[in-house]
């Protein structure tokens, strides 16, 4: 016969395992409900097509090169440089038009990276996995975003290059992470989506730029909310199942990935900086960690990811130093998309 103490210990252990399973089942049902809600929203909620929901040839959306509405938004550190402020009005409009088209082109390129990795991720899912349905909805929406961004680029400034060449050349290799290291791939998704989402919301809160750009941002923000929500939900769901090594690796790589993604989207490529005529010293000073405006923009764009990393146990005393080192540290947002002025 077993000693009473041993029997009590085993009963407690068994009870602990049952409790853990019940919690996991409850969390699993909640996750499945989230996927169902996202899928239904993509099917019956606001969803758009690039050439159906934008009146490209409407006179209100005309975007000639000398349109006085071409202005740099305040969120762009370039708008606060002495170099830009001293330019003649016509030259400011030219720079603003190229700058906005350049960021839009880079957004299109990043969406293509998401498609590359996203299809790799889907191939690894088992039948009946509800993640397949929603993420397929997301990839469908991303194709419309690519068309929308590219059409804008073609009409406004087809001469822009977009992201840095090395950044773009790495996409095929990065896309393989969709199947090789999905958790890292979803962090890469956020490294592209969060900065763009933050910048576009800041622009719209400030009154917008041009009717055409505003319409594009309205569409992108409406659907991107679901995309970012899924990435957050996926990482929250799968984080408890990650090994300690994987969790530590993500804790270290996430701030670096956020820094690289932000740099690729926000900092003009060498080709586009030359087309805009930005002097090298102005470029270095404007998009440098020595510039408080640039540092603040980087930190603000990472606020939601910091909150997610905290919830997933990936910002620890062993990894926090890297968040500080990369400039991605700061106060986590209290809720998703909290305005920067409240999080500061």
UniProtKB/TrEMBL annotation:
The chain crosses the membrane at residues 245-266. It comes from the Bacteria. InterPro entries: AurF/CmlI, Ferritin-like_SF, RNR-like. The keyword Chaperone does not apply. This is Diiron oxygenase. The keyword Metal-binding does not apply. Keywords: Membrane, Transmembrane, Transmembrane helix. Gene3D superfamilies: Ribonucleotide Reductase, subunit A (1.10.620.20).
């Amino acid at each position: 016969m077993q000693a009473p103490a041993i029997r009590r210990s085993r009963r407690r252990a068994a009870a602990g395992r049952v409790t853990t399973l019940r919690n996991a089942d409850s969390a699993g049902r909640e996750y499945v409900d989230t996927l169902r809600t996202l899928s239904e929203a993509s099917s019956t909620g606001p969803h758009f097509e690039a050439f159906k929901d934008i009146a490209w040839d409407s006179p209100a959306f005309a975007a000639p090169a000398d349109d006085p509405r071409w202005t740099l938004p305040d969120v762009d550190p370039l708008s606060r440089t002495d170099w830009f402020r001293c330019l003649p009005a016509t030259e400011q409009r030219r720079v603003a038009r190229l700058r906005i088209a350049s960021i839009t082109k880079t957004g299109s390129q990043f969406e293509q990276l998401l498609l590359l990795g996203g299809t790799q991720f889907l191939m690894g899912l088992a039948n009946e996995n509800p993640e397949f349905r929603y993420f397929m909805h997301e990839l469908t929406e991303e194709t419309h975003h690519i068309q929308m961004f590219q059409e804008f680029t073609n009409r406004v400034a087809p001469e822009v290059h977009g992201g840095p060449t090395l950044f773009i050349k790495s996409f095929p290799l990065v896309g393989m992470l969709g199947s090789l290291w999905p958790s890292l791939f979803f962090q890469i998704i956020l490294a592209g989506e969060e900065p763009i989402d933050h910048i576009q919301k800041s622009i719209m809160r400030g009154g917008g730029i041009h009717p055409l750009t505003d319409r594009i941002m309205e569409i992108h923000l409406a659907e991107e909310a679901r995309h970012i929500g899924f990435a957050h939900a996926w990482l929250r769901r799968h984080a408890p199942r990650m090994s300690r090594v994987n969790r530590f690796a993500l804790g270290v790589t996430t701030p670096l990935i956020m820094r690289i993604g932000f740099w690729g989207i926000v900092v003009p490529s060498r080709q586009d900086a030359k087309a805009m005529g930005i002097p090298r010293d102005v470029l270095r000073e404007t998009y440098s960690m020595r510039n408080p405006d640039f540092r603040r923009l980087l930190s603000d764009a990472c606020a939601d990811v910091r909150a997610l990393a905290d919830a997933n146990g990936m910002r620890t005393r062993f990894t926090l130093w890297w968040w500080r080192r990369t400039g991605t540290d700061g106060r986590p947002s209290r809720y998703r998309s909290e305005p920067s002025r409240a999080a500061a």
